Predict the structure.
Amino acid sequence: MADTFTVGGAKKPRWSVVREHPSAAVSALFILVLLVAGTVLPMPYDPRMPDPFATLVPPSAEHWFGTDSSGSDVFSRVIAAAQVDLGLALGGTAVSLLVGVPLGLLVSSKGAWGERSVRALDAFQAFPLLILALALVSLSGNRMSMVIVAIALINVPRYMRLMRSEILALRESRFIEAAYATGSSRLRVMWRHLLPNSLGVILVQTSLTIANAIVIIAAMSFVGVGATPPTPSWGSMIRAGAENMAFGQWWVAVFPGLFVFLCVLCFNRIADALGDITSVRRN
Amino acid sequence: MSTATPPETTARDDSAVPESSGMASRSPARLVKLVGSRLLFAVVALFAVVTLSFLLVSLTPGDPVQVIAGDLATEEQLDALRTELGLDQSLWARYVDYIGALLSGDLGTSYYTSTSVAGEIADRLPATLTLTVLSMALAVIIGIAVGAAAGYFRSRWQDRILNSGVGFFQSIPDFFLGLVLIYAGFFLLGWAPAPVGQLDIIQLPPPSVTGFITIDAIIAGQWSVAASSLGHLVLPVLTLALVYAASFARIARSSIGSALNSQQVQYARALGLRERTVLRYALVEARSSVLTYGGIVFVTLFGGVAIVETVFAWEGLGQWALDGILGMDIPVVQGFVLVAGAITLTVYTLVDIAVAWLDPRISHG
């Protein structure tokens, strides 16, 4: 009963999705605005321009988020950093998705080969992945492309594991058995039944991966790897402001931290909504 | 093809009942075989991890000698240093040396401090383990309690409140939460000790017996030191526990929630079984995914503790590895990868065995 997957059956008009998940819709809007704001909207100050006469100014009408210890406008930098951080996160996630899902399908085949690949995957997961990612980027001399590679390295095994566990569970279902019984080929079962039925899981995972990538990228630049000054990035801004926290100048670190938090919250909300939508349709 | 084996409907339904032990798949022979293959795998995987990490740090383009010697070093000094560190030899010779030394328990020496990597690890592991194990324990308690409650009250107001709390802590990066807690607990409220290290600066660590400062202090009867070390643990443990409890609660909520919606639970409800019994069935059904996720959380925690250690100047294994990475101290990075890999594999092996024992439906091949 719960096994059937009706793709076209219970389709509702699109706006009802927005109405039923207002927080996810607002989240998506927020992310879109952040992505374009740096280029489209005029910034009050040049994000890379220090001003030695206005260092560590608290938030005011002139500097909405205050200024940091070099006198750069925190608001302008936070907005400029959005494109750097979100761009890297989206890029890394896209690579993870495009590599991870096909590989995941591949290792879900029953038999010695799939089992062996998943063992290799497990061995790979024994790496401390954050340390591995940091080492990769740091040793390559802080190349931005290596940040994306590092994000993919962390997340491809996750996609593969997820796909495998989802498909191993699905394969025990009656309808898969029925599909085989009516003579469907393995490829057809994979394409027509297994993949569509894991679509919800994949979508949710993708949203979560973006959220996770944002945190990893912020963590990297927090310790001084990846996007580092003068390139504006949330992590390096938090790092710069960490010292100021001690003297009560909270705004330098709190605003970039808040934006990391908001972005992650948004993608988590979107993931929640995607989970709700897909599991509703599954019933 | 064995894919289409008739689904063992009865076994599936029985698995919700903990007393059912009549299944052939939970036989001791199967478990012994599983344990054996897992242990063998763990050893092979650790070897693979060590080899991969060696290749990784050796083949990346950066030149550690240049970084260590600094920009002012002459060509002769660089060559001398290269010879001293053994970096003038071929990759293969270095690999054979490294593995040979590893087998005799020698993890090499740090490029900077010339201290033995194994010794440094032994010194620092207790600090990191204290942090990770306490954080994990707290995260599990909070996570399962919150997750089970949210799953039980799914879609009701209790769930909404709990879920927004979970969403909050899941979205906040741990290092940032650490900074906020330092700001609140130390600067604003003043109840937390200065967030630098494991003890107050004026305090001497107790004589080392176990290496765990709190335990050593208790053994030596130095109660003020023990109290101070506990005080220093509060903020970092709270930071890690809140963040990881949130991700734990999420999985607990979804697996317990879906277990409560499953056919056997609906059936149990239809039979008029007590709510407590129904909840117990659901917990039993959810336990393998919760357990699997617990393993993953612990491993992530151990790998991710480095940055929180930096925030709190904890001087543990993670912070040491992070400094090693930034300074291209290759033996240090490899030493950390080895320890983290060993801990990860141990945890995954234990989880795999436990899950296979708890849930005979899952076949591993």
